[in-house]
Amino acid sequence: MPIYERFIGKHRDDFKSMDDIRENIRFIYDDDFNFAYDVIDVLAKEKPDKRALVWLGDDGREKIFTFADVARESDRAANYFTSLGIKKGDSVLLVLRRHYLFWFCIMGLHKIGAITVQATDMLMAKDYIYRCNKAEIKAVVITDHGDCTKYYDEGADECVTVQHKLVVGHKDAGEGWRDFEAEFEATSADGWVRPTGENAIKSTDIMLYSFSSGTTSYPKMVAHDFRYPLGHIMTGVFWHRVVDGGLHFTVSDTGWLKSLWGKMYGQWFGESAIMVYDFDKFNGADILAVIEKYKVTTFCVPPTMYRFILQNDVTKYDLSSIVHCCTAGEALNPEIFNTWKENTGLEIYEGFGQTETTVAIGTFYPYMKPMLGAIGVSAPHIDVHIVDLDGDDCPVGQVGEICVKTEYETRPVGICHSYNRSREDTEGVYYGGFFHTGDTAYKDERGYIHYVGRNDDIIKSSGYRIGPFEIESVLIEHPAVLEVAVTGVPDPVRGFNVKATIVLQKGYEGSPELVKELQNYVKKNTAPYKYPRVVEFVDSLPKTASGKIRRTAIRQRDMEKYLEEQQKQNNG
Asked: 381, 15 in Cβ contact below 8 A?
């Protein structure tokens, strides 16, 4: 039986419906649960030769690791980090892109009881300073890709808790950098034993710090405890629907928590191997070729990546190995859904979650069918409500905040432990009997949840509350539109006008005629009052390091322009 059965008591196919799962799902774990010991080491002992990780470098190099390999190399990592003085509760920063060493390092840190901090290789000096000091980083392990070590060194003197600088790669990184790979390989994998006594690790100890995208200010530091991987049984086993002995491919950098959603816990609970393609730049044709060559069985990318993949002739590739597809991170529009299905025969199943959660809302195959425009229903292990400002459930069709019904002390597995190591900040999201996500949605008559947007993305225009995603989803279907961000722009009469900032497809040019065409297109495909009264064509959209569109940056720029114009009028 797959190992996840030991933690929920039965096979996923023994559940007959979503109601059956919701009523009968149970998480069974000890007070010292630790994924590295209780899943990886157990699989290494019982199924040592089972494939765990398939790694492909951008230069064509290939490595395949079994569960026995992962267990052995994580022991080596635990020995190595311990030799540096890393102990339970210490924080280690990993900036490793998609290098296979990431998986060995994080499992080794789990075995010590140390805290893993993920980060992208796109950080600048100020970003390193903030993260290192906020998380009290003791050691950094950074790729030699690009100028990562250079940017770190620009702020190194202000990273006051860092004692060790370790570089992965073979480039001379400069003064003070030690060769991680050489030291790691020289370390023995023998002799590591699970800590006991005062070094024993509890399931409620902090395991991970993850920094949110930070679209409005410095990122929040989200803490997860050692129970967090258990929540990903629902992500990998029930939503991704991974195949025992198969190969799951989520396209994500290890700098983001999405990599833990799709490249680690839930997949290994389901005993599926993980496909890791360490590309330098995303290319849809390359992704299709990898799926074909390695016979990927389950697949998950954001809608934008599906869109870029579909710019290729998908029918030239043999994708028959795929049995299930998922998406999350942004709105899935009908064009992508329908075109993907026409080319592959596969439907795309949506999901919703945050840095703070595992999958919280989803369309769970085979218990449900996708409904375009809806992200699904509450994940069975948590109790999602759409609530108004008074904390009451919203009626059908009314927009409210997505909240999880819970008290902090009894929060479900997978929901964040704390914010910023601050009781005040943590109480800012845990109050009124709910965990507050800050995202808004509404329920339809069937109980499906429709995402609207972040609280601060909502546009209030002439008394209407308008979410950006529905308008963006319509506009992205127009053949002229490559990317779009919908925001509110100040207006003295309406409060705010709906504005669409658009990147055009090749072959199209902005014009008053195209503006009118796009406005009419929105009017015909959604409620007319939502159409963008303002349209701006740009070469690119501002984005976070994780690739999310920064509507905040657009709003801020437009507000500055508006205030300048108001000041000119007042002075005139």
From this structure: no
